[in-house]
Amino acid sequence: MIRKVWDNLEEGALCLLLFFMVTITFVTVVTRYVFDLPLSYIDQLVPNMFVWVTFLGASAAVKRRAHLGLSLLYDRTSGRARLVLDALILLGCGAFFLLTARYGARVVSMQMENRLTTSLGYPAWIVGLAVPVGSLLFVVRAAEAWGRTRRGAPVPARERGGRA
Q: Could you tell me the pTM of the whole model?
């Protein structure tokens, strides 16, 4: 059960976030144009959710090895060279996202000093938390995908995407 939740963590969160984003957008459009009663203060919520969608989506993509990548060099390599290139890609992406997580955590700690969002009044760190959480998830999922590749385990059909 825990494994199933872990394997579908990003997808579940993304489904919920996208559902709420669409619902909130629909409600604000209806109230604005049908009832002439704009709920403009709620408009800030959707872009804030989009930050979470961006980082969770990156993590889900790397898990499926479906994120964008320049494959010209990768496609021309095979065997040991491809394994070395895979490791270099993992190290490069991992280093970048670990630095992003570290910087994001510093920003979140600054946001925790009683900073609230302007229109809705909820803590700004809830939005900022997407950066370190999503970045760390990216690193973990990249390592998992690399480990599967290293063991020669195929990417499950439901997770098959493009090359990392």
A: 0.76
